[in-house]
Amino acid sequence: EPEVTQTPSHQVTQMGQEVILRCVPISNHLYFYWYRQILGQKVEFLVSFYNNEISEKSEIFDDQFSVERPDGSNFTLKIRSTKLEDSAMYFCASRRLGGETQYFGPGTRLLVL
Amino acid sequence: KNEVEQSPQNLTAQEGEFITINCSYSVGISALHWLQQHPGGGIVSLFMLSSGKKKHGRLIATINIQEKHSSLHITASHPRDSAVYICAVPNYGGSQGNLIFGKGTKLSVKP
User: Fold this and answer.
1) 3-state secondary structure at position A9
2) Which residue from A30, A19, A28, A45 is spatially nearest to A109, judged by alpha carbons?
3) Higher local confidence (pLDDT), B46 or A73
4) Nearest residue on chain B to A94, judged by CA atoms?
């Protein structure tokens, strides 16, 4: 069964460094999402992406964040200058046109030191 | 902006028991999601429903749009059902992606 994949599974970085989290959505899906979950807290929406542009973003998704679909398969989340509070699990999800279900990736656990 | 409340926060059950988890939200919505988060952190979408009831195996989800309330039921619970169950709704009612998540209900089923 097709699935969403994310790399890396874990990343440790120093405060102020840039990180790129990668996602490969399911191949015929057209809607893409990033969510994050700080340890012990709720899952939070970051951004949705459709037709090569951001369709919605939350207050969390400030200028430090950007998303890109650099080719036909990858969907990336870049954090320009990481802060300690960016430490969280980041989930990518995708959905097909007309579909109801979002399919989640396994997540990338980011630790900022 | 929508707000989501789930209850209970924690639930311990004996294998075979019938489980009910509740979710209430504040703003009228087009559809509601039930998700399962495994102990390792992975998230699986269980249901998306906009009215009535849906059933998948031992899981049943119901929604009452007028009362802004949904329930997730698990029949004949099993230790492998132990997970966090999360309800999520569109932030502004109609959106598919901008979801507001509940805090989750941590279910532990003992053998």
Assistant:
1) coil
2) A19
3) B46
4) B97
Strand-pair partners of A49: A32, A54
What is chain B's Cα-based Rg? 13
The predicted-structure confidence for B64-76, as pLDDT tens digits, reads as follows 999 999 999 999 9
Q: Check B97 against A48: CB less than 8 A apart.
A: yes
CA distance A72 to chain B (A): 21
Is pLDDT at B15 greater than 90 in this prediction?
yes
Nearest CB to A48: which of B35, B98, B102?
B98
- CA distance from start to end of chain B: 41
What are the structure tokens assigned to B66, written together?
A: 């007028």
Q: Residue A16 region, left (φ>0) first, then alpha (ψ -120 to 50), else beta?
A: left
Terminus-to-terminus CA distance in chain A, angstroms?
Answer: 37
> What tens digit of pLDDT does each residue of A39-72 get?
999 999 999 999 889 999 999 999 999 999 988 7
Tell me the residues of A at the B interface, defined by beta carbons under 8 Å apart.
31, 33, 35, 37, 42-45, 48, 55-56, 58, 89, 91, 95, 100-104, 106-107, 109
For residue B39, the chain A residues in CB contact (below 8 A) are: none
